[in-house]
Amino acid sequence: MISLGKERKVYLNYLLLLLLIFPIVFLKLGSFHMRWWDESMFAVNSYEMMYNGKWFSLYFDNFPDLFNTKPPLTSWLQILSIKCFGYTEFAVRFPSALAACCSVLILFRFTAKHFDYLWAWIAALILLTSYGFVHYHTARTADSDSLLTLFVLVANLYFVKFILNKQKRNILLFFLFITLAVSVKLYAGLLFIPAYIILLIYKKHFKEFIFNRYFLSGMLLFIFSIGSLLYLRELDSPGYINEVLFKDAGRMTTVVEDHSQSTFFYLDNLFNLRFSIWSSFFVIGVLFVFFKEKSDETNILKLIFLFILVYLTIITISVTKLDWYDMPIFPYLALIAAYPIYYLIQSIYKKEKQLSLLKKTSIVTLIFLYPYLIQFSKSQGNSISDGEIKLESKEMYLFDKIKKNESLKGLKVFHTGWNGSLLFYKYKLAEQGQQIEIIYDISKIKVNDKVLVNNDSLKTILKKKFVYISIEEMFNAEIFMVSREK
């Protein structure tokens, strides 16, 4: 399992790692309803792009979407998945899951190459069992953060490779993946820039990095690609660039959509929830990095720590804060948190020149069996709070009926507020030949209509105007058959 020695057997490490990734990241990926906000927004954007042919613009409910100002790469990838699997919950989430899978594999490969296979296994399993890496808005939902994490991870590792070996072709590869990261989530793909500058100056590689054809080619690739995406969308949706320059950039100094939190919100979340089980090992790992004797390993880990420090500082001083904004640093957290565990194992068995494969496998299994089972339970449980259940009960009802192949043709959904996840089900049912209608005005409800509603105030409005029969309930969602007007 851990180190098979011969190059021809290395693939077995990756195969086994894939077998461990699958149950947590991919299994039952489409087994829960479309969530409110971000993932439903992306799912609707992708569906409408697929049918309206506006490949450089995002549309929502058939209007240009200036709420989601992100470039279209996420939608392009989701459309490829939809073409393969159909317009389903699984299809729109698959690119995120695949990106998370690739992040674990790439972290494993980098660690095995520069450190040790045992270290690589520990780091990969820490990442895989981190709640903040595999959860809503990250690996298992149709958001952009998992793709962002993958692209900046690969870009940063190519940057590290340049620092280590000064091979200039790594500069072009670095720019390629930075371009992909920005094509997913704009400014978030650039938050490591202060770390790049600090490292280039400290290592005295600044001129070497900039004054060469690879840097020039990479900059031209970045400017042309991102500039084209912005310009083409502005042509279709006038005002888009203004939104990008003032709304998105303004997240640093202005609270957007009431997402205000305490100063140490991210640190609290990392230590208490999102990286909680491994956070103590990370702290010890940082101490090891800076206080143990210098080595090739600690030199690399110092670079990695700077990535964490810079990114965490920027999102901490930003006044707009959301739980999942810290996802891009999880691979680096995992690498450093693995250090003391690896060191402890090596210290205990230091008299043995080389640990046997069986012993390494047994040790890693003993350490990670419980965290793995806990993470598996969380990823398959898909639990949400009572408040979220009440809010999303209409979507849960629609998901359940579609899963059971029950007809919803002609259903009217009486609704107020965010409608992204309802639009997803409207489009999904349309793909199956069933038409439902989302209505916001009670005047559009007629006698003999079947109406789905979960909002208490809307139920009160219905009760005042109609005599009806309650046919079915699921959590707070109810189906009413309208008998007559009062």
Q: What attributes characterize this protein structure?
A:
486 residues, alpha/beta, five-stranded mixed beta sheet, two-stranded antiparallel sheet, 7 strands, 62% helix, globular, disordered N terminus
Number of strands: 7
Proportion of residues in helical segments: 55-70%
How do the strands of the widest beta sheet line up side by side? 4-3-5-7-6
The separation of the N and C termini measures 72 Å
In percent, how much strand structure appears in the residues? 5-15%
The helix-and-strand class reads alpha/beta
How many separate domains make up the residues?
2
What is the overall shape? globular
How are helices and strands ordered from N to C? HHEEHHHHHHHHHHHHHHHHEHEEHEE
Rg (CA only): 25 Å
Runs in which pLDDT lies below 50 for 5 or more consecutive residues are 1-5
User: Mean of residue pLDDT?
Assistant: 92
Oligomeric assembly: single chain
**So how many helices?**
20
Description of the molecule:
- This protein is of the alpha/beta class and 486 residues long.
- The protein folds into two domains: 375 residues, no CATH class; 99 residues.
- It has a five-stranded mixed sheet, sandwiched between helices.
- It is globular.
- The N terminus is likely disordered.
